[in-house]
Write a structure and sequence with these properties.
Helix 3 runs parallel beside helix 4. Helices cover 14% and strands 35% of the residues. It has 293 residues and is mostly beta strands. The chain folds into two domains: 147 residues, Elongation Factor Tu (Ef-tu), domain 3, CATH 2.40.30.10; 132 residues, Rossmann fold, CATH 3.40.50.80. It has a six-stranded antiparallel barrel with strand order 2-3-8-7-4-9. A five-stranded parallel β-sheet has the order 13-12-11-14-15, with helices on both faces. The protein contains four helices and 15 strands.
Length: 293
């Protein structure tokens, strides 16, 4: 891909559909934990800083971008991550082991303090959650990307944002950055009431927290999030609505079908992503295979 030849978009996205601004090049940033903030009992914010943020960070409004985060190995402590070579190749450095990484949505960028914030769910399993549970000021991380800015359209009067706790950073960004004249409905599935967060923005907000049952959902039965979606009344004119949904992959498929088939949204009015898949460790959201039709 010749990134230099790809189109660049500036100003508000008033096209009614997604725009992608690809970066000229992928950038590696060697950062350290500046501080740790516990948002809820199971949600922790890691604030990162470092000289590699001195020139800023490419963030766009209404853009749930993700970056690739490289973690120290839980046993050896080696932080293996790729670095671009003079010939353009990316080669792992930092140790002989494998590079351990996950993709995370950027929760916030503070241009004054030059600090980048990432939120972690402390679910008790997985190396990223374990790392975040023990993270302290000074700990190193490598952040690559973003490779592009997803620019959600800014010319809708209604926005729907829904997902589980893994989608909270993206949903929070949409709430905070939606146009002031718009209305945002957010349906967020969490384990219990103690996991609620204070989410605000300039737009009118209808925020609904969905407390899920911890028992698995049987085949043929609606999940808590889909039930909440079906109980919500969409705007009379579907052409005024843009929807974003993310969470467990299999749970997202009927949600997308409902938004497309029953609410009547076009393909350009819906973004649905599978951030994880039940029973699959190390799931890559690029493999979510959610229907494009």
């Amino acid at each position: 891909m010749d990134r230099a030849r790809l189109p660049r978009f500036t100003g508000p996205n008033l096209t009614g559909e997604l725009q992608f601004n690809y970066m000229d090049r992928l950038v590696r940033r060697d950062l350290r934990v500046a501080r740790v903030e516990d948002i809820t009992p199971r949600y922790r914010r890691i604030v990162l800083a470092g000289d590699d943020l001195a020139d800023g960070f490419p963030i766009a409004p209404l853009s749930p971008d993700h970056v690739r985060v490289f973690f120290p190995h839980p046993d050896t402590g080696e932080l293996v991550a790729p670095r671009e070579q003079p010939d353009g190749r990316w080669v792992n450095e930092g140790g002989t082991g494998e590079a351990i990484h996950r993709d995370y949505t950027v929760r916030a960028w503070d241009p004054e303090a030059r600090e980048l914030s990432l939120d972690f769910v402390l679910h008790g399993h997985g190396f990223a959650s374990r790392w975040a549970s023990g993270a302290k000021a000074g700990d190193p991380l490598v952040v690559n990307g973003p490779s592009s800015n997803w620019r959600l359209p800014q010319n809708y009067t209604n926005y729907l944002a829904l997902g589980d706790e893994t989608a909270l950073p993206a949903i929070a960004r949409i709430i905070a950055e939606a146009p002031a004249e718009a209305r945002v409905t957010a349906l967020i599935e969490i384990p219990e009431a103690g996991e609620r967060q204070d989410l605000t923005g300039a737009a009118e907000l209808d925020l609904r927290w969905v407390h899920r049952d911890t028992a698995p959902v049987a085949d043929g039965h609606l999940g808590a999030l889909e039930t909440a979606l079906r109980e919500w009344t969409p705007p009379a004119d579907p052409g005024t609505l843009f929807a974003f949904a993310a969470g467990e992959t299999e749970s997202m498929k009927p949600i997308r079908r409902y938004l497309r088939g029953e609410v009547g949204l076009t393909k350009d009015q819906v973004v649905v992503d599978g951030y994880w898949r039940r029973g699959v460790r190390g799931f890559d959201h690029h493999d979510a295979d959610i229907d494009d039709n």
